[in-house]
User: What shape does this take?
Amino acid sequence: MNNSIIAPEEKSAVIPWEERSQGCSDIMWRSGRNPVIPRNLIPVSNSIFNSAVVPFRDGYAGVFRCDDKKRDMRLHFGKSRDGIAWEIEPHPIVFEAEDEEIGRFQYAYDPRVCWLEDRYYITWCNGYHGPTIAIGYTYDFKSCCLLENAFLPYNRNGVLFPRRINGKFAMLSRPSDTGHTRFGDIFYSESPDMIYWGRHRFVMGPAGDGWQSTKIGAGPVPIETAEGWLLIYHGVLSSCNGFVYSAGAALLDLEKPWKVIHRTAPYILSPQTLYECVGDVSNVVFPCAALHDKATGRIAVYYGAADTVTCLAYTRMDWLLEFIKANSII
Ligand code: BMA
Assistant: This one.
């Protein structure tokens, strides 16, 4: 335990927020300031997207997916006072690996950041003979220790729960194959120590013929509510013009999160604006982080758009829970 660490819930930064405009009935609405992070915020970047943000000290910190101009996929630390204007480090994170074999990975993308007990854990898709889930941790968003990969390749979208469940660390992930898989289900795994993961349970797979019919993957760290874990996740449609990535929401059982209580039939966000439909990969919204203000119920979701830029969308906890229950396929 590092005693200089302040738990995020012990301080109150005001989360980014914009009210839903009059006449809009969408359950999730976009920031008027999108894209909040342009593709070229730092000189080396080709694109900055699918990134994770958490409360940190008197503002926010994050881990950003920055694909560089060689198109190598790298992770960078960033800081912000208000969650909107970001300073992203010009150099990728240098991971301190206990085992240098694990430190020799080929790429890193789609990070999630989770405050858990006494530190910020970072999970991401790590290139180690194919994509798998790496786990690292930081106290200060300056240095990062690299633990073992959680799973064998191939796996993506590793997302930790923010507390132990039944005494164990818990993670969602999406076993897949080497490339842009045309299938994908979310699984739940647990660990006594963040190193060894097991007791894998099926959570949910693709559904219907629409936005989540090809594959799905967990998005931001789940938010605990009285009615279950709120999980925002992405779903993929195979169109005649390629994959379309949208976002939906589910409620998972608090003590047995592999049991899905509700899951939305319609998406809550789909690629519709120019910055979501046009970019390095068209037609993608990909949420990786959510800030939740308990006092007001406000939720701010950070998502990658068109594999190019980082954006913000908003919802309210009570509205979203009502929406999930009223539009559930379960
Ligand atoms: C997925 C991941 C994401 C990406 C998405 C759309 O397989 O690679 O990083 O946003 O495809 O290209």
User: Anything to note?
Assistant: The chain has one domain: 35-326. The chain has a mean pLDDT of 95. The longest strand covers residues 45-56.
